[in-house]
Amino acid sequence: MTIRRWMMAAAATLAAALPLARAAAGPTLDGVRQRGVLACGVNVGVAGFSLPDSQGVWRGMDADLCRAVAAAVLGDPGKVRFVPLTAVQRFTALQSGEIDVLIRQTTLTLTRDTTLGLRMTTVNLYDGHGFMVRRDANITDPRQMDGMTICLSPGTTNELVTADFFRSNNLRFTPVLQERMQDNATSLQAGRCDAIGTDATQLAALRSQFQRPQDYVILPQRFSKEPYGPVVRRDDNEWFDVIRWLVMALIQAEELGVTQANAEELRRTSQNPEIRRLLGTDPLLGNALKLDPAWAYNAIRAVGNYGEIFERNLGPNTPIGLERGLNRLWTEGGLMYAWPMR
């Protein structure tokens, strides 16, 4: 065989092998499929995010995102094992393989993304640090909190943000560190601390569970940027892609007007190329992610688009009572923006 023919034969063999290489999924995606269930790390219990109801069913925005992943990967939103984790436990559980993905009010930061062997995927909620105090304390500005005892959760960005704020303003405070946010809520109501420092959405969630929520005030000032997002292990790029683009798909669905109620009809009738790609009539996106063409359709049918998830769990008509604010779509003055899905 001449050198030219040998090179042509080798090139043909390599070309034939490439589709097989592209079709191979990463270890986490393969593991979830083989196991038939997604292990999803969530908070131990915060209303609006992840909290079991009276029937033991996990409810909240984070719980819905876990179900969306299961629907996209396994075709069934019920195939989730919820793993409740404290702030201290969460990263170790992901690093050790106890969970497949962490969807638990986790702020995406540079050091977490570069030093833990983990990857921050994308933002699913924009938040900011704040303080909640008793109404009868007559506090309107955190600079009036000198000498207060503040309940915080260790291992969180809130612990650092609180310390930075008090130090920079030459104020004193006494921290009370408790892993469970519910313990901080109990301590505030019992008078063991004067305030809770954490992200504003969590403060609203905690207050909604109080016996007398009207007796507590969430101060309006914000002291940090707290972008929440799912976290995965660094060693699996395919799984990283699945989780990141799932969040994008839910935002894209809201941008395109695709809802839990109309997704089935639009999948049959829409001639919009973006909708056809999103819902799997055109298999381009599913093939790129090594998923069923209907991956995003299954997720939307299971939990709705991003706006539906927010309004159902955190919106003004819920006990949490939050306006969307920065979490509105970019076309409505917010920061939520899906990358082009093509």
From TrEMBL:
Residues 37-266 form the Solute-binding protein family 3/N-terminal domain. InterPro entries: Bact_solute-bind_prot3, Solute-binding_3/MltF_N. Keywords: Signal, Transport. SUPFAM superfamilies: Periplasmic binding protein-like II. Residues 1-23 form the signal peptide. It holds the Pfam family SBP_bac_3. Belongs to the bacterial solute-binding protein 3 family. This is Amino acid ABC transporter substrate-binding protein. It comes from Caldovatus aquaticus.
